[in-house]
Amino acid sequence: MSSCNSYSLLDKISSPKDLKKLSIDELPTLCEEIRVFLLESLSKVPGHLGANFGVVELTVALHYVFDLPNDEIVWDVGHQAYVHKILTGRRKDFGNLRQWGGISGFTHPNESEYDSFVSGHASNAISAALGIAVGSKLQNLNKKVVAVIGDGAMTGGLAYEGLNNASSQPNDLLIVLNDNHIGIDPITGGLSKYLVKVSTSKVYNDIRQKGYQSLKKLRIIDERRKGNLTRFNNSLKALINDDKNLFEGFSIRYFGPTDGHNVVELVNTLISIKDFKGPKLLHIKTVKGKGYAPAEESAVVWHAPGMFDPATGKLKVSPELPDSPLKYQEIFGKTLLELAELDDRVVGVTPAMISGSSFNFMQDRYPNRVFDVGIAEGHAVTFSAGLARKGMIPFCNIYSSFLQRGYDQVIHDVAMQSAPVILCLDRAGFVGEDGMTHHGAYDIAYLRAIPGLTIMSPMDESELRLMMYTAYKNHSNGPFIIRFPRGKGTCSDWCVPFEELPIGKSEILQKGEKVVFVSYGPIGNTVASAVVELNKKGFHPGHVNLRFVKPLDEEVLKQISSEYEHIITVEDGSKAGGVGSAILEYYSDNSISIPMTRIGISDHFVKQGAVSLQYEYEGMDAESITKKAEEVFRTL
Predict the structure, then answer these.
(1) Which residues are catalytic?
(2) Do residues 73 and 67 touch, judged by C-beta distance below 8 A?
(3) 284, 256 Cβ separation under 8 angstroms
(4) pLDDT digits (tens, 9 = 90+) for 605-619
(5) Which has the closest alpha carbon to 315: 330, 305, 325?
(6) pLDDT over 50 (residue 539)
(7) What are the helix (H) ranges across 172-258?
(8) What's 411's DSSP letter?
(9) What would the DSSP string read from start to end of 485-534?
(10) Distances, alpha carbon 156 to alpha carbons 121, 152, 175, 377, 401, in Å
């Protein structure tokens, strides 16, 4: 990719109206300038590179043809919307992309009038766009609505629910399928290209529409039977082309596949089909990382590569110290491999996060015992329950925020039949730059109400290892939940010998006076730092590592209520319904009265930024916890 000292076309664009002033022949040059800008920006301020390089031409074409913000585009997933942000007046903000106080790496209506919908989780675009389209039609609004969905997001069940509903509602929705990896349809040659041109030509569609109106006048067809005619047309096209695909089965008009990197062709195709009545799907073929050789060659690495040298493609990785702690994800992956070596019944299940959750360790050794089910969290949970019912021991690892989409399955398919599934919740707590859509803030609250679950969280990496072993050894007692954070922990000597932890028992880390901390999970290390500072100031709080939020250690809770005058609970989850709430419920149910202070995530969504800033914002950093404890001590 060539470098640009100036952006002769891009500098002219601050809104889609400016884009429309360009000639169609200038668009390829604009696409090149956008790629150079993205390369220079993302090399310094990390973000999602591969997906955005793959949709440059598509995004330019959509904004060139449609009339935003009157027309609307819903992105699935929003991490591929950087070019959309550039063309809608946010290019100047890319220096603060995904940073505290800056613009999000996803779309959000609160950020821009050009962002139609929140899009941090996959597979929601078709449903959302369909709702927007139907709502607009009911209000007689002259509005075009587009859903852009990647082939990865098409593995999620919600996408198919939206497809199924699209043909039964009055709408003119356009779905753009951005196929950058797995071909949904067989690769075809010249005839397929011919059919794209024929099916998008004005003459063809005039004949098609007039034929429909004639049949309607003869009362051979009506609105109720219109779907049958669409299915007939799609079937005829499939018969000629030997190109049968599932979209036509949903009575959705199908166009493509076509080259997603030919911006002129995309513009002409979109102009041809945008006014067609009824739901329609344009299938485009793209390449992740298009235009930047290192990204094209390694899509996984360049999905979100961090900082790098744009000239060489060399990643800027901080040097690792010999005794540097590993990531929690690596501890999970290495420990899971050890358990798999101990027992052939141990299997791994992930919804499209093989590398993110470090399943690659086990996959390399036992590829037939690791199952990547795609972006399908609900299916992952139920699939795991099925495995468990047949005697396997599934470790199903799902990001905390993504398990929200499998909640019913946890209740109905796991808990109600005590299926011995071990659910490992990765990315619990704050996750940093991915922001509010990815924080693991709510799992404690939404899971502890479910009967039959054992829910625990380690304070450090060695404890994660022991909790995985404990769950393995006790799996026949019912389902287990283990939550742990993103990133590195605190200790390098994590590989301790396997031993079982007593279920529902906490650990008293320090005895103290007047005030006691009860921490849950890795935030206990922050509390331990606060305890050290408080000791220096002459205050001596106690500290309990709770370990289990279900079942609670009622013995220790009763003990500390009589030994201390005030309890401070600290958790890296929602205060509403969280650990502090659980302890308050226990005391209330047992008529125990003791003052409490709860520290956790308050009742709002926390934006993107460095994890340290997010904890500081919520008063969950060591300095804030120390200050809060001082205030409590001074009242006693």
Answers:
(1) 288, 377, 405
(2) no
(3) yes
(4) 999 999 999 999 999
(5) 305
(6) yes
(7) 190-200, 202-217, 226-241, 246-249
(8) I
(9) -SSB-S-S---PPP-PPPTT--EEEE--SSEEEEEESTHHHHHHHHHHHH
(10) 10, 8, 15, 8, 15
